[in-house]
Amino acid sequence: MDPMIDKHRIADIATLERLYGTPAGASVQKEVNYIHPHYRTLIAASPFCVLATGGPEGLDTSPRGDAAGFVIVEDEKTLLIPDRRGNNRVDSLRNIIANPHVALLFLIPGIGETLRVNGRAIISTAPALLERFSVDGKLPRSVIVVSVDTVFFQCARAIFRSRLWDPEQHIDRGSLPSLGTMVADISKSQFDAAEYDRGLYERLKGALY
Q1: Which has the closest alpha carbon to 39: 149, 120, 103, 114?
Q2: What would the pLDDT profile of 16-27 be if each residue is shown by its tens digit?
Q3: Which CATH architecture has domain 23-162?
Q4: Nearest to residue 53, comparing CAs of 92, 111, 110, 94?
């Protein structure tokens, strides 16, 4: 680490609070320990969230997406999240078994505000629960059941600064390395990048559930 960076490191809460001050007003009042009806509306409108977990091997963030409202508000203290098909690494699920504390960040296309939920989770394979998330007769492997501790919305500054929803900011996929190229180069194996990339997105879209 650069010695100058380390010299100016903030290493205690008192120093941090002198730099930033303390939150007040809406920053504090918007936080509740249950899913307020307004927050329920935001969750129902969201087709995408990021799930953060932590375990013995460290931290993990995992994207979760489906049709808007795919996260069900079971009641004001409980969320249900289907675990759809993926790469079977199950990093998030391993972490939940070791440490139930989770955090969720919900995004809504075109909307600047995001919603943050902190809580504790378990993983369930209850048949009746899986059936509630059936799509074309296909069930999720499991459902993450989150007991809510705190909920609050995040203001739109980060979305405004990033221009995340601005179509003029959209990047052509061809300007970046393909997935096959990245796997081949990173693994330094005799991996056939071209074969992997051929029809990749069509294959993914055909195996969403």
Answers
A1: 114
A2: 999 999 887 888
A3: Roll (2.30)
A4: 92
